[in-house]
Structures are given as C-alpha cells and as structure tokens.
Amino acid sequence: MNGSQEELELAERFEIAFNQIHQQLKAINGFPKNDNFMELVQRSKQKHSVIRHYFDNLKQYAKLRNALVHEKIRDDYYIAYPHREVVEEIEKIKQTLDQPPKAIEVATRPVLFFKTDSHLTKIVEAFNRFKVSQFPIYGDNQRFLGLLTNDGVVRWLSQNMQKGCIELEDVRAADILKLEKNHNVRFLSENNSIFDLESSFERSFEQKQKLKAVIITADGSQHNKPLGIVTTWDLIKIDRYGDES
C-alpha cells in the first residue's frame, strides 16, 4: 500500500534536509575523500559543539535515511515514513548548520580593557572585582598591544619588591606588559560563527600553540574596539548553548 500524500511529502522533506546536512558536513571537514555520513559526523563531533549536541539524533537519522533510500520498494513507496516531529527536528538541525550561532553570543561582554597608562592599582582592583585572569591592553587609536595577566602582575611584583615593600602609585600597565609573555591571541569579526571560533582553538591546538583568547571586533581587526572576548573557559558556554536554544 502506497503512503498518503502527506507521508510522501514528509519522506521527501526528510531526504532533502538529510542531504543538505551531509553537504554541510563535507564542507565543515574540507570535503575529505571519505565522505561517509557517520564518519563526517564523528569527525565533526570532535570539533564542533553543535554536532556534539545533535550527535545522537544524527546517528538515528542516518539509520532512517538508509531505510528510506536503500529499502525503498519503488519511487512512491517506502517501507516506513518519518514522523512529522522527526522531519521538523532534522530541518531545525539543517537550519542551525546553515546559520550557526555567532561567536559574539558566547563571548564575555562587554570587554573590560585598559590603556597603557592605566594605574596598576586600578587593574589589580579589577582582577579582584571581576574574578578574571587577564585584560586586553590598548594604546593610542585602539591599537591592541597585548594581554595583561595576573601572572604578569605577580612576575612584576616579585622583581620589584624591596624589603618587603612595593611602591605602586606610579606603576602603569605598560610597565607590566614589558614582562608579559607573547600570548597567542586571535581576532574574529562580530559576523563570525561559533564554528569559526571553535576552529580557531582547534588550529591552535594542532599547532601546539595555546590560544589565550579570541577577541571579537566589528570587522576582525585587532586595532578596533573589542566587542567580546572568549577564553577556554568560555568554550563551556558553547556546549551548553544548544541546551538553551
């Protein structure tokens, strides 16, 4: 017995969404020779939170798709039909991959930053108040100069203590930056996606260069006002993002 018109339409919608997701997975993985759907899902799961979030669903949809395509009796007859809820869910996943959340949505905002002439006392107060470990430092014309970290402050203090005392009144951010390590910082624009953000951390990991932070500006230039900042701690937000959407 043939399926109803509604069932046939649901099956067609499911196949279309599945094929589009398959193409998106190929693109995410650089169109590898092995483009098996589940192989791509497994590979993408390691890199992207959206795929991790929908992993179990995608695994089940792959089985359903195989049943629809490979066990199809004729063009208008399937041995099973997807429920409307399943079709709507796979279309939702496809839409999410089409338009993934923006990196700025999981970034810490607004960004608290300091100038090179900012007093160290103000910076130390900010460390204590906001419970963070680093602040971007900017020079003239919003020129990014580096990250000032609590480790850098401790390093400066240890080198400038005399008889158990330290004079902080005239110490500026620029003085601390001289002792800071060359921290790995990357920049993204406010239009970049979570995929772009995760790829930045993934590339740094592959290059064995710890990425200290990703700073988001309007156009991705490092010399524009910071709109958001993402650290490894903020990546936890990405894994939770799908649960909140």
From TrEMBL:
Keywords tagged on the record: CBS domain
Entry-linked SUPFAM superfamilies: CBS-domain pair (SSF54631)
DNA damage is among the record's keywords: no
Gene3D superfamilies registered for this protein in UniProt: CBS-domain
Domain CBS: 107-163
PROSITE patterns: CBS
Protein name: CBS domain-containing protein
Organism of this sequence: Thalassobacillus devorans
